[in-house]
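B., you asked whether I could sanity-check this one before it goes into the benchmark set. Here's the sequence:
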Amino acid sequence: MRLTVFLVLFSLFAVSAQAKLPDDEKSFLLKERELSRKVEQAETTKAMNEAQVAVEQYLRDELTNCDQMARRSFRGDLLKQYTESQEKWQAYRNSMRKLLESKFKDAQGSISGIQLSSYLQTLDRNRILEILTLLQGLQRAEK
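And here's what the prediction gave me:
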C-alpha cells in the first residue's frame, strides 16, 4: 500500500516537473522572485534585512495557505500520510535551522543572519512547490 502511494505521488511529481507550470505555481514564483529582487538590490544591510523579512513573511503565509488547502483537500489515509509528512518535514527544517545557527553563531557581521534566512527560505519555497504540485496532481486525477 505504501509503495503504491509512493509510486503514485512520485509519478505526479515527475509529470508536473515536465509540464507547464500551473497558475498557482507561476503566481507564487513571480511574487517570491519580485520580493527576492528587493533583497538583492538593497544598498544597505538595514534595507536588506527589511526585504528579507518581507520574503520570510510571504513564504510563511504561503506555506500556511498551502498546508490548509492540502488538509481541506485530503481525506482518510491520504490526510494521515500528508500530516505525517508535514510533521517530518517540519522536524527536518527545525533540525537544519539548529545546524545552521550553530554554524553561524560565531560568524562576524550581519550577513550571516541573512545567509541563514536565505537557506531556510529555500526549504520553504521547495515545500510550497511540493504541496502545490501534489494538490494539482490530485485535482487532475479526480477529473
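One thing to flag: The longest helix spans residues 111-142. Otherwise nothing jumped out at me.
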